[in-house]
Amino acid sequence: MSVALYARGGGVGCGAKAAAAARRPGRGGGGGRRRAAAVLLLLLALAYVAGLLVFVLAGGGGVGGRVEVGREVGVMTVASLRRRRAAAAAAAQPGSVYRSHLVFERLWPDIRDDASSASAAASSLSSTSWRRSMLMTSHYQNPGELWMPCVNRKLIRPELPPSNGYLMIEANGGLNQQRLSICDAVAVASLLNATLVIPAFHFNSVWRDHSKFGDIFDEDHFIETLKQHVRVVKELPVDVLTRFDHNISSIPNMRTKAYSSPNHYMQKVLPELLELGAVRIAPFSNRLAQSVPSNLQALRCFVNYQALRFAGPIRVLAEDMVERMVKRSTLTGGKFVSVHLRFEEDMVAFSCCTYDGGLKEKTEMENARERSWRGKFHRHGRVINPEANRRDGKCPLTPLEVGMMLRGMGFDNTTSLYVASGKIYNAEKYMAPLRQMFPLLATKDTLALPEELAEFEGHSSRLAALDYSVCLPSEVFVTTQGGNFPHFLMGHRRYLFGGNAKTIKPDKRKLVLSFDDPNIRWNRFKRHMQDILHHSDMRGTALRKPNDSIYTFPMPECMCQQDGMM
Predict the structure, then answer these.
(1) Half-sphere exposure of residue 553, counting CA atoms within 13 Å on the CB side?
(2) DSSP at 65
(3) Architecture of domain 153-309 in CATH?
(4) Distance of CA 560 to the CA centre of its chain
(5) What is the mean pLDDT of the segment spanning 497-504?
(6) At what angle do helices 522-537 and 100-123 cross, to 10 degrees?
(7) Transmembrane residues, as ranges (predicted)?
C-alpha cells in the first residue's frame, strides 16, 4: 500500500476506524476527536516512511541490495517485499552466506598450532615417511589397473586419398577452448577428407588476446606430426583464394550446431565442400559430438597429446619454471601441489556471488558485468540469487577457502604450492591468508623474472600455457571452479600418469556448509575436509561415459591396460 493511500485512511487497519469515528455526529468533543484522529494518521504515515527509509539505507530488498519501487518514488511494490522476505529466508539456509573469513579468524590459532604439532611429529620420524600419506604418494595408486597410451596403433591407415577441398575454422575462447576446437577440427577434416587450414583465433572480449596459432603452438610440429593422418596447410593457396575474390568472407560459412554428429558433416558439409572446393565454419566451438567412432576419438587424443605442443618460447620458459618449482620443494622431495584458482574479477562478476566486500564489491562487480557482458544481467526475467548460487556450489572459492580446505585435508605449511591463475580480484586482501597458511607459495610471477614474462604480458592464452605446463607434472592438482583448463589438465595427467593422477575436485555444496559455521571446531572442520578428500579420491580413475569429454576421460578409447604401447 502506498504512503498516500495509507494517509487517506485506505479502508484498513486502525487508521480506517479512527476516521470513521471522527465523522460520527452527536458525540461530545467531536472537534478534539477529529484532531486526535488526524494526528494519529499523521504519526502512522510518518512511522511507515521512517521504516521505509531504514529499509532503503540498510541496503535491503531486490537483487544486490537495490530496493525496487513503483512508478511513484517511495512507493514499494508488493513484489519487492515478497522478494525481500524470500531473500531473508534463503539467507537463513546453511551455506547461503560467505562467512569463511569469520571461520578463519576463529580457527587460525588451531591451524597454526596443528602445523607446529605436525612438525614436532616429523622430527621423530623420517620426513619422507611422515609426508608420504599426503604428498609423496605415487601417481600410480593401483598398479593392477595401470593404463598406458595406445593411440598410435589405433591410427594405422593407408595412404591419404586426394583431398576433397579446404576446411577453415575459427577457434574462440581461451587457451583450452581453442585447443578443443583445434582437435575437433582435425577430426572433422579427417572425416571429410579435407585439407585443414591452420585455424584462426577469434578475438574474445573477455580474454582480450590477439595471439595467433603460431604464437601459442608449434605450427611446424603440428603439420609434420599429422601428415600421415590429415593434410594441414598454413594458408589457403592463391588459386583457391582467387575463386573467392581474395576475400575469406566470401567462402560459405557452414554454420553448425553444437555437438553435431558425423552424419551432419557428411550430409550437409561434404556436398558443399565438393562443389566449392573450400568451406569455413565459424564459430567452431564444441561443434563435434562427444561420442564419435573410435578412430576419430583416437585422432582427437593424438592431436591433443602429440601434435599440439606449445611454441618454443613458452616451452623454454615453462621448463625453467618447473625446474625452479622442484628446487623450491626440497622438503617434499621435489613434489608440489598445483591449484587452479579462479578468482579473477571477471569470474567473480560472472558468478553473481557475493563475498565480504560490501558496497565497494557490489559496485565493482556490477561495473565488470556491464563492461564484459553489457546488459546480459539486466534482461527482463533474469533473476540473480547469490545465496542459491553459493548453496549450489557455483561460487568461485576464495584463496582463503582454498587454503583452509587444503590445511584441513592434511597439507601442512611445508607444502610447496603453485597457484595458476589470472589476476586475482582484490589480491592484496584475498591472497594474504593463503600465503599465511602456505608460505612456500609460488606463482608464475614469482617463479619467472619480469624480463622473462615481458613477451607474454597482455596475452592471456600464452600466460595460461605457462600455468598449464607447470601444473601438468605436479604431484597433486586441485581444481576449484570447473572450466576447460582443469578438464583438459585432468585428462592430460590421466594420459601421462597411468590413468590415475592425483586430482582434488571438492564438492563445494558440502564445502560451504563448513565455511558457514563460525563456531565450528578445528577437529570437526578437518573431519569434514578429509571426507571431501576421500570422496574426491574415489573418482580418480574413471572410464569415459557416453556424454563425457574424451579430453577429460581418455580411457578407454585412447589408452589400453598395461600391455598398451605408444
Answers:
(1) 14
(2) T
(3) 3-Layer(aba) Sandwich (3.40)
(4) 31
(5) 90
(6) 80
(7) 37-58
Residues, the chain, total? 566
Q: Please state whether the peptide bond connecting residue 556 to the residue before it is cis, i.e. omega within 30 degrees of 0.
A: yes
In contact, 225 and 306? CB cutoff 8 Å: yes
How large is the average pLDDT for residues 319-325?
98
Q: What is the pLDDT of residues 280-310, one digit of tens each?
A: 999 998 999 999 999 999 999 999 999 999 9
DSSP state of 143: G
Contacts of 348 (CB under 8 A, 6+ apart): 355, 365, 368, 396, 425
Q: If you write DSSP's letter for every residue of 149-200 in order, what string do you get? A: E-HHHH----PPPPP--EEEEEE-SSHHHHHHHHHHHHHHHHHHT-EEE--E
Residue range(s) of every CATH 3.40.50 domain in the chain? 153-309
Grid coordinates representing 504 are 582434488
Q: C-alpha grid cell for residue 462?
A: 600464452
User: Exposed/middle/buried for 11, CB within 10 Å: 0-12, 13-18, 19+?
Assistant: exposed
Instruction: Tell me which amino acid residue 114 is.
Output: D
Report the alpha-carbon distance of residue 488 to residue 506 in Å, rounded: 17
Of the candidates 303, 285, 326, 300, the one whose C-alpha atom is nearest the C-alpha of residue 472 is 326
Q: For residue 144, give every residue at least 6 positions away whose Cβ sits within 8 Å of its Cβ, in sequence order, or none.
A: none
Position 139 confidence tier, pLDDT thresholds 50, 70, 90: very low
Q: Is 444 helix (H, G, I), strand (E, B) or coil?
A: helix
Strand partners, 418: 338, 442
Preceding peptide of 554 cis, ω within 30°: no
One-letter amino acid identity for 282? A
Q: Quick one: how many helices (H) and strands (E) in the chain?
A: 26, 12
Residue 365 CB contacts under 8 Å (≥ 6 apart), including other chains = 345, 348, 349, 352
pTM: 0.81
Question: 80 by DSSP, 3-state: which?
Answer: helix
- pLDDT band (50, 70, 90) for residue 6: very low
Grid cell in block for residue 312: 618454443
Q: Tell me, what's the pLDDT at 552?
A: 95
Give the pLDDT confidence score for residue 308 in this predicted structure. Answer: 98
Give the integer Cα–Cα distance in Å for 251 and 239.
Answer: 13
Residue 140 has pLDDT above 80, yes or no: no
Nearest one of 470, 183, 156 to 304, comparing CA atoms: 183
How many whole angstroms from its chain centre is CA 91? Answer: 24
DSSP 363-426: HHHHHHHHHHSTTGGGSTT----HHHHHHTT-SPPPHHHHHHHHHHHT--TT--EEEE-SSBTT
DSSP letter at 86?
A: H
What long-range pairs does 27-32 form, CB within 8 A, spacing at least 24?
Answer: none
Q: SS3 letters for 309-347?
A: CECHHHHHHHHHHHHHHHHHCHHHCCCCEEEECCCEHHH
